[in-house]
């Protein structure tokens, strides 16, 4: 019963999705399902959402097809080898056995769990804007800031599976309180909500990232300063990371990354501010080439591109 | 003509050394030679120092022995694949063909060039305090701050060879000018000279790291604050790095790291300040187990432990 389909599962702070994905990185029409998660959900509700989308996606498996395997991308932190997840924004789940839950719903398949940030990086590397680089960080700038690393052509997930937490790399000069308990982390400075909060503190009257984008287009000075501040901070953090691991490429997706193309000019300025070292300034920073399918494609890459997993 | 000896070369900002090192990581008695380098040296003087120590060390090769190969550790930045070095503190050399120079003095051998920070990490991994970890950052805290990475049991040198520049990871809350052109880099905050300068700015009257150590032992409040400040900053940077690459172990050597064992308590406090994430706080931080032979042992590891080079 040969098949080239993987079951992809993406668990995030507001929703969980599942879909079937072929060996070319294409989501099979009609196989994608979504259910809510959310910080106020209890463990049973979260479990119901996960098993619901997994069962629904599996139910669309063409007659006679088998699965190559199951890939799960989850918001971190995780304990990769034990299959446990503790998503920062899903407090009901701490060291929750997600791999086991999925195995119960879809028994008999190999399951691979990684952080969602690594999955989006794999997706860009496989079929997106990272195809030409073996030394690549993928980033998501949205409600939070996350990412993943491919170094020397292979993923870096680390001994616990938590490598890639770019949102918790510090940025010089900042001291903003972070949800992780620290201060001056990139996520605490430059996420969508933090940029909105900063603008409001300067006197801007909106309340969402979408409104901030509109104000930016309209030439509002505070909105422009907020975008510059976020971009510079992102660039500085990319500078630190490139100093450390000699990146060639950074791909950035997520809602707030699309606030305006000018964000990328500010990111470039932040990298140049970080250092004059040529090996750091060489790093390219480009927008994600994937739509909101990226996380699912990346989860499927855990199966289809298992050859480059560490 | 079998042999288990490697020729190790370590090029730094104040000196260059060479020695023969056996397959157990031991420097052969009488084979170690040192000559000065220094920021005021011209290119010819630097070349003379390098060829001098290389020829002297080679001259001690036992009759009938051959070399397994030559390993060179150099202060960065470097261009690894081209064999070029641009040590920040040796301005006479920018993209200087160091590998070619050594090949001229010792023809017929395979030569491997890496950053000195990677070499000290390899040395700790091979025969020092890093033997039990596959996810390890080695650091030197001295006139500057440098380091190297071993992830998943293999070195990470990066596409240009410059991975490991931990001294140019930013630390939140600081804005000190860095020699790299940036601000708030760890090296600009916590190196020996910067810690001395900070203490002097607070009213302390000494002028060297050794004097700062003496004042610390004597209970001087400014000296204690300077050590705490450096340790916290080092810990914060280790926190950023562990967030990014999920380290298990950090080994730290270099003159300023030995100022007082209390430095390591402040480093631990800095990591805990950085975040409450368990996967970050898990990281162990220990002193180097090697003497000042570490850089040469590490350069030799480029030959003897070529199996784990990326």
Structure keywords:
homodimer; 310 residues; alpha/beta; Nucleotidyltransferase, domain 5; five-stranded mixed β-sheet; 10 helices; 13 strands; globular; ROK family protein (chains A, B); ROK_cs (chains A, B); ATPase_NBD (chains A, B); ROK (chains A, B)
Account of the protein in words:
Chains A, B: Belongs to the ROK (NagC/XylR) family. Chains A, B: InterPro entries: ATPase_NBD, ROK, ROK_cs. Chains A, B: This is ROK family protein. With 310 residues, chain A is an alpha/beta fold. The first copy, chain A, has 2 domains: 111 residues, ATPase, nucleotide binding domain (Nucleotidyltransferase, domain 5); 159 residues, 2-Layer Sandwich (Nucleotidyltransferase, domain 5). Chain A is built from 10 helices and 13 strands. Chain A has a 5-stranded mixed sheet with strand order 3-2-1-4-8, sandwiched between helices. A 5-stranded mixed sheet of chain A has the order 11-10-9-12-13, with helices on both faces. In chain A, strands 5-6-7 form a 3-stranded antiparallel sheet. The longest helix of chain A has 25 residues. The two termini of chain A are 29 Å apart. Chains A and B meet through helix 7 and helix 9 of A and helix 7 and helix 9 of B.
């Amino acid at each position: 019963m040969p098949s080239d389909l993987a079951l992809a599962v993406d668990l995030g702070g507001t929703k969980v999705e599942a879909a079937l994905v072929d060996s070319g990185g294409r989501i099979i029409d009609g196989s994608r399902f979504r259910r809510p998660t959310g910080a106020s959900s209890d463990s049973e509700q979260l479990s119901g959402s996960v098993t619901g989308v997994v069962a629904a996606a599996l139910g669309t498996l063409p007659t006679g097809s088998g699965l190559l395997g199951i890939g799960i991308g989850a918001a971190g932190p995780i304990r990769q080898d034990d299959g446990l997840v503790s998503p920062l924004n899903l407090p009901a789940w701490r060291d929750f056995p997600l791999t086991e839950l999925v195995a119960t719903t879809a028994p008999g398949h190999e399951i691979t769990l990684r952080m969602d940030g690594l999955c989006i990086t794999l997706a860009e590397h496989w079929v997106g804007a990272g195809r030409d680089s073996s030394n690549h960080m993928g980033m998501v700038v949205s409600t939070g800031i996350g990412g993943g690393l491919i170094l020397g052509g292979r993923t870096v997930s680390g001994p616990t599976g938590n490598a890639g937490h770019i949102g918790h790399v510090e940025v010089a000069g900042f001291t903003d309180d972070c949800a992780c308990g620290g201060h001056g982390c990139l996520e605490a400075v430059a996420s969508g909500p933090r940029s909105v909060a900063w603008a409001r503190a300067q006197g801007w009257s909106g309340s969402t990232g979408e409104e901030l984008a509109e104000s930016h287009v309209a030439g509002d000075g505070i909105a422009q300063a907020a975008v510059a501040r976020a971009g510079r901070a992102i660039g500085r953090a990319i500078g630190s990371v490139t100093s450390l691991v000699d990146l060639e490429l950074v791909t950035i997706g997520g809602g707030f990354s699309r606030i305006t193309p000018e964000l990328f000019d500010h990111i470039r300025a932040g990298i140049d501010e970080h250092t004059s070292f040529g090996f750091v300034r060489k790093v390219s920073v480009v927008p994600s080439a994937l739509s909101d399918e990226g996380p699912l494609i990346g989860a499927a890459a855990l199966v289809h591109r298992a050859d480059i997993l560490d």
